[in-house]
Amino acid sequence: MDIEFKSIDLGEALALCVKFRRDTHKISYGNLATYNEEEVVNWFHRNKAENDQGFKHIFVNGKIAGQLEFRSPIKEDEVTFGYIYLIYLAGMFRNKGVGKLAQEYMFDQFKVDGCSEARLRYIPGNVVAEPFYLYTGWEKSGEVGPRGQLLVRKLA
């Protein structure tokens, strides 16, 4: 499998980024009732301007397979960590090892940035994300809050 992680140019790929975010929202919440495309577009522009390196499209054998959104390093309470906003894979690329490779790509970046752990949040009941995260070694931290369940993964 030939996998590439390419920086996202919002001028060319904003519609695709929004499409992937919409699909993620539907998978996480079961519907699009609370999805707000204007907020998503504004979030992309604001965060990409602050963190250009943390927005990647995933290509497998030359075909668009998904999207990564992450940030590092972040320092909080004497811990330096990388934060993952999104790991999205189109349906035909799920359960084929692409998600693990995408995680490793981000973990490698986090380690270069001096991070000792990775963090993310997901919505419990997300039947795509939850089994993947728990299978790949993430641990729940704290209680479920309004933004979902915090997961932590120590980086070796």
What would you say this structure looks like, in words?
The longest helix is centred in the first third of the chain and has 20 residues, at 10-29. The protein has helices at residues 10-29, 37-50, 98-112, 129-135; strands at 3-7, 55-60, 63-76, 79-89, 117-122, 139-145, 148-154. Strands 1-2-3-4-5-7-6 form a seven-stranded mixed β-sheet, with helices on both faces. The model has no long low-confidence stretch (mean pLDDT 94). Helix 3 links the parallel strand 4 and strand 5 (117-122). It has one domain: 3-Layer(aba) Sandwich (Aminopeptidase), CATH 3.40.630.30. It contains four helices and seven strands, in the order βααβββαβαββ. By secondary structure, it is α+β, with helices and mostly antiparallel strands.
